[in-house]
Amino acid sequence: MSLLRFKNSYAKIIEPTCGLGSFLEAFIEDNVESSKLIGWEINPNYVEHANKTLQNITGEHNSIVKKKDFFKINWKDVKNKYKNSILFVGNPPWVTNSELSILLSNNLPNKYNFKNLKGLEAMTGKSNFDISEWMLIKLLDFISGTNSSIAFLIKTSVARKLFQYVAKHKLLVSNFSIKAIDSKKYFNVNVDACLFLANGITLHPADYTCPLYKKIDSSYPYKKMGIINNKLIADIDIYSNFSSFDSPSEFKWRSGVKHDASKIMEFTINQGSIVNGLGEIVDLPLDYLYPMYKSSQISRKTISTPNKYMLITQKKIGNKTKNIEIYSPKTWEYLVQHSSKLDARKSSIYKNNPRFSVFGVGDYTFLPWKIVISGLYKNIIFSKIGCYQDKPIVVDDTCYMLGFEYEEQADFVLNILTSSLCRKFIESLVFLDNKRPITVSILNRINIKNIAKKLGQYEAYKCLFGNTESQLKLNINPTASPANKPSHAFRLSEQLESYVPRSTSNV
């Protein structure tokens, strides 16, 4: 570890949230002078235990660990007190702010939207963050423009966010590296984790890049991530050959339907009966039910016949739902019967919206042809799905989709997305260890037209989609029926008829 190899060159080594002082103990055993070491810990019992342990090792009576709350540290005072270079080290809490709230912890940073998220992003989970992310941002701000450094064991996903933060805010920080560690072996947790290293510098770097190492003791990186045009690139060497594909997609990728109540809103057919996730056999017409796939189904090379259905209460976000009582009384009765669970959905997106609302719906939801992909799986597979029993198949919010009115359009786009050129481009963007390797933001960076030109298929593209430079708007033909009226029903007896998806492909 290059940075730790020069640990003796720092005037002070500080471990915030040092717990029982294991890192400090390791430094002493590695012949670092105890006078250089400082520990901060909020738990007074840990402070007492750590100092006793360290004093037994050194034979000295000075207290290395001080009681201090990281979230209340005055960083200006720290900078004034320690004029020379500092090495900050440690293994901060691997929990999120929401998890600490659940645990009724009082030791939380002041809540504010430090990522400057807007609208739904700020309400649907993206505002949640690792406590370690918040802490390391404070330290990165501190070392910017100095000769100080950091070396922390953290989640790999958090390390990437920190790297992006530095680049976005143009901090005077460089010499990054991310070295993977076997968290199962050392911590008995199944988390992609790493040793994250960074140095403060006094001049702006020429660019922001970070080598990635497969092991903590690897001598050479296996690839290098970077920031190009304010975008995070997983492999900048591969990306350089396909950067022309990285342009706003002319098609708008969207998430599937979000309802946050799978046991109420999703159903299976069992021996001719409709069964919800609570195991209840329900007397429910199929007026508002649509065949559906989940991520686990579309992540396979071969997709089976739909075996689940979703209750979709609106055609567009914000549609009134009360008229369901008129068009399908039994559906409304079912919703009211389970209203205690539906009304208790926690996400703030349901507040001030019609009762029993869903999200991720629009004209695109009900188009007859879709290209779909799971956001959860490492085997990145694009698939084409169609209709089942004259109803369009929908996907849940763990999936992403493009909707098309004509099968030829879907076939063409699937062919582009599964080409070797597109596959390599996607590989240069994707981090497979992310909880969601594929995101809608990544998909919306894939410009189909530019790839079609590279593949010599531009004329076919123009025939199918025209020569528009703006986003294509492929909508269902308007109808005279009210917005939230069921399009049509289909017979339960037809459920057993076979459905074979037209095409799936693996990237």
Account of the 3D structure:
The longest helix has 15 residues, at 44-58. A ten-stranded mixed beta sheet has the order 3-2-1-4-5-7-6-8-9-10, sandwiched between helices. A six-stranded mixed beta sheet has the order 14-13-12-16-15-21. A five-stranded antiparallel beta sheet has the order 11-22-17-18-23. It folds into two domains: 2-241, Rossmann fold; 254-475, no CATH class. Residues 95-109, 111-115, 117-129, 468-482 and 488-507 have low confidence and may be disordered. It contains 20 helices and 23 strands. α2 (22-29) packs parallel to α3 (44-58) and α19 runs antiparallel to α20. The chain is an alpha+beta fold and 507 residues long.
By helix and strand content, what is the structural category?
alpha+beta
Indicate the radius of gyration in whole angstroms: 27 Å
Query: How much strand content do the residues show?
Result: 15-25%
- Write the CATH fold name of the largest domain: Rossmann fold
Output the CATH class name of the largest domain. Alpha Beta
Q: Spans of 5+ residues with little confidence (pLDDT < 50)?
A: 95-109, 111-115, 117-129, 468-482, 488-507
The largest sheet, given as strand count, sense and whether it forms a barrel, is: 10 strands, mixed
The order of strands across the largest sheet is: 3-2-1-4-5-7-6-8-9-10
Number of helices in the DSSP assignment: 20
Please state the second-level CATH architecture of the largest domain. 3-Layer(aba) Sandwich
Share in helix: 25-40%
Termini separation comes to 35 Å
The residue-averaged pLDDT reads: 85
Number of domains: 2
Label the overall shape.
globular
- Beta strands, count: 23
